[in-house]
Amino acid sequence: MQRQGSFGGSAAFRIRVTGGVLLVAHLVLVAWLTLRPLDVPWVTPPNVHPLAGIRADLALGGREAARRLGEGLALLAPLGVLLPAVHGRLTVSPLASLVRTAAAGALISLGITLLQTGVPGRVADVDALLLNTAGVVLAHLAVVPAGRAWLRRREARDAREGAESGARRPVTLQEELSQGRTPTIPRVGIAP
């Protein structure tokens, strides 16, 4: 039994399960990296002015700025690939997929930022939220459309080969549940 529009067979199941396991592992790693208390002699004030921290990082010079900005982009970037893999759909609007993934990445980053306010040595930073979300979007754009196109071509090739060999194609959930018109019961009058 397969959902219509999802990629079929055991390969799809393996991709979804692997994506789910990697997603959980990545989120555990992110929580460990971002929610551990820091032993610092002082704490900087929270950054609530968008792009102020990014400008300060750029003022540090090329290598240090690239390292700090790269860390912000890379922290949640795997979510841009893992969330669509767990979803497991091939026939979805690229824009809708990007918007859903970006929104999920932004919400996860916001959740981390809010949780950090209660952790000693950690402060809220709006630029971290912006960089994390941008990393999710960039990873999604770089991998997901090409990956889905490759999987669609592979599925079409497998379907052609199956049709040529006379193999029976898998039945979709909609086809399996469709049993014709729903029967109706004639109305019976109620006696007074």
From TrEMBL:
Stored PANTHER family: INTEGRAL MEMBRANE PROTEIN, MEMBRANE PROTEIN-RELATED
Keywords linked to the UniProt accession: Membrane, Transmembrane, Transmembrane helix
Organism name: Streptomyces monashensis
Region annotated Disordered, chain positions: 158-192
Top-level division of the source organism's lineage: Bacteria
Membrane in keyword set: yes
Composition bias type Basic and acidic residues, residue spans: 158-167
Listed name of the protein: VanZ-like domain-containing protein
InterPro entries xrefs: Teicoplanin_resist-assoc, VanZ-like
Transmembrane segments: 12-35, 69-86, 98-117, 129-151
